[in-house]
Design a protein that fits this description.
Elements lengths: L9 H9 L5 H19 L2 H26 L12 H14 L2 H10 L4 H8 L4 H8 L3 H19 L4 H31 L1
Helix pairs in contact: 2-3, 2-9, 4-7, 5-6, 6-8, 6-9, 7-8, 8-9
């Protein structure tokens, strides 16, 4: 009879969490919000609203595909269970609960959807930054919030294009920062 292996210490689990690239999901987010912005430019408000729901709902699945290209295992099949992965996934789930706010506001003002979904789903970057011990999470959440609100006021007739454009721009900066973070980790290992 074999005894199950003891779970790794929290420090070992955190080290394993930090050894991730963290590129698949922001790349997927940038792709999805680009599609949302294009739909916002081409479709009437109702169609653009559906694009927000479909696009943001597709981010995780796009992340799985992108993860295959970046070498990331978003399901964690190739590694032991990790508390930090679980906490991060719970923060993603918490940000999805934001639809409970977004849907009633959509009914009151259909153009509110990119604002509410854009900000509320971006809150998952705050716990990510804490877990990853990196400033990019705070940068992403705060910059995204401020710029989305600015776009809301500055482009009232183009909210379904201006807000996605802002979110994509923040994602692009985040991707560059995370790539540099990963290169520094690789260089430190060498």
């Amino acid at each position: 009879m074999t005894t199950p292996a003891a779970p790794a210490s929290l420090d070992a689990q955190h080290d394993a969490f930090l050894a991730n690239r963290f590129l698949a999901m922001p790349i997927a987010g940038a792709i999805a919000w680009t599609g949302i912005g294009i739909a916002g430019a081409l479709l009437p408000t109702r169609g653009a609203a559906y694009a927000v729901f479909i696009g943001t709902g597709a981010i995780f699945y796009l992340g799985i595909l992108v993860g295959r290209l970046t070498g990331e295992d978003l399901f964690g099949r190739g590694r032991p269970a990790n508390l930090f992965d679980r906490i991060f996934l719970m923060s993603v789930a918490a940000s999805l609960c934001a639809y409970g706010i977004a849907i009633p506001f959509l009914q009151a003002d259909p153009t509110s959807l990119p604002l509410s979904v854009g900000i509320l789903t971006g809150t998952m970057w705050l716990p990510f930054g804490a877990l990853a011990r990196h400033w990019v999470g705070l940068f992403h959440a705060v910059t995204r919030t401020l710029l989305v609100v600015a776009a809301w006021y500055l482009a009232p007739g183009a909210r379904f294009t201006a807000i996605p454009a802002v979110i994509v721009a923040v994602y692009l900066v985040t991707i560059v920062v995370l790539r540099r973070r990963w290169r520094a980790i690789v260089a430190a290992r060498a």
